[in-house]
């Protein structure tokens, strides 16, 4: 029985650090899971190592402030990675990655490889519940099939970021702070099936340059939409459209409401009446725009009026602070003027004292001046003597350099002669091989000795 509980305990632990800087996956869990991974300092990132980690990898708990390129390289074989809820702030995505999920972090910066010639292979990317304000780096991910950016801090977005993602099937940007979605050039995402822009702050939307031949679901719920440039008829495969929670112009809503082509959702029961709005097939709409676009506390911009009120209070506080600083500056200017007058008075007194010293002071000054002149003259003589010695040494160095160059030339000539003679001796020795005569051997030996 005890053995059973021990086995159960071991199987419930995915991984644990074997040392302070090494993490390893347990063989009892699939996929490979690491727990309590703490990498918050640069030293910890430098020292960490991983053993027996396999793909796909899940880091289920811990704290990793920055997922750096260095860390990605230490997980070089991992291309399917899940790193949720680790308090990440920056995230480097390597080109080899194919699937990445990094939700419920604090990511505000996405980093990509500096080498722009490297192609990215990533197909699914989930970055929901972070703090992203810019996603321009995603433009290099042209193999993406699914991209989720819900619940971030995006305020403005260009659809051109996604123009090269020709394999994209799902794109979700729900619950951001988007008030502007622009499209500069025509985008052709022929495989895109679902697009979610719900829960933002969009006032209008231009979809005229969107070529989405496979789009089946478009969610625009819970924005502040009043008008839209373009119609849904350009999306031939469209089946469902989310329109509720907006402030549509009734004429526009009637024009795009085509139950024979696509199905629209409905607003919450009682909303239209509560907000004094009309409806088209239970989707609330506005006949008179002033009722929702005006400055009333219940209007479309009610939160903006609250912000303006706070700004006005801040301006008033700044004005009070400015007046206080102005008074302080005036006080300082008065003090400076007073100090300048005091300094002038001291100068006048000093001048009077100098006049009273008279001839005696002048005599003392003359003696001190003569002493200084003698000191300066001595220093000048010393400097001239040093300059003369320096000139003489420079001349001697030039002469020595000339002699040294001559010696080098002579040495080079002697080495050339030596090489020539050595070659001759070697040749002669080769010719005399096999000749045992005492005279021949003696001649060669004497010649070698003379060379040495």
Characteristics of this structure?
alpha/beta, Leucine-rich repeat, LRR (right-handed beta-alpha superhelix), 3-stranded mixed β-sheet, 8 helices, 28 strands
Would you kindly provide a brief summary of this structure?
With 452 residues, the protein is α/β, with parallel strands linked by helices. It is 40% helix and 18% strand.
Give a description of the structure.
- This protein folds into two domains: 22-297, Alpha-Beta Horseshoe (Leucine-rich repeat, LRR (right-handed beta-alpha superhelix)); 323-354 and 369-406.
- It contains eight helices and 28 strands.
- It has helices spanning 2-11, 42-47, 69-74, 250-256, 271-274, 290-293, 302-431, 438-451; strands at 15-19, 22-25, 32-34, 37-39, 49-51, 57-59, 62-64, 66-67, 80-82, 90-92, 99-101, 109-111, 124-126, 146-148, 156-158, 170-172, 180-182, 187-188, 194-196, 204-206, 210-211, 217-219, 227-229, 240-242, 248-249, 263-264, 278-280, 283-286.
- The strands form eight sheets. It has an eleven-stranded parallel β-sheet with strand order 3-6-9-11-13-14-16-19-22-24-26, with no helix packed on it. A three-stranded mixed β-sheet has the order 1-2-5, with no helix packed on it.
- Helix 7 packs antiparallel against helix 8 (438-451).
Q: Strands across the major sheet, in which order? A: 3-6-9-11-13-14-16-19-22-24-26
CATH architecture of the largest domain: Alpha-Beta Horseshoe
| Tally of alpha and pi helices | 8
Shape, per Cα inertia axes: extended
- Write down the CATH topology of the largest domain: Leucine-rich repeat, LRR (right-handed beta-alpha superhelix)
The low-confidence runs, each spanning 5 or more residues with pLDDT under 50, are 1-19
Q: Under the CATH scheme, which class of the largest domain?
A: Alpha Beta
Mean pLDDT: 79
Helix content: 40-55%
Tally of individual domains: 2
Rg, alpha carbons = 44 Å
Protein name: Putative membrane glycoprotein lig-1
InterPro entries: Dev_Immune_Receptor, Leu-rich_rpt, Leu-rich_rpt_typical-subtyp, LRR_dom_sf
Keywords: Coiled coil, Leucine-rich repeat, Repeat, Signal
Organism: Psorophora albipes
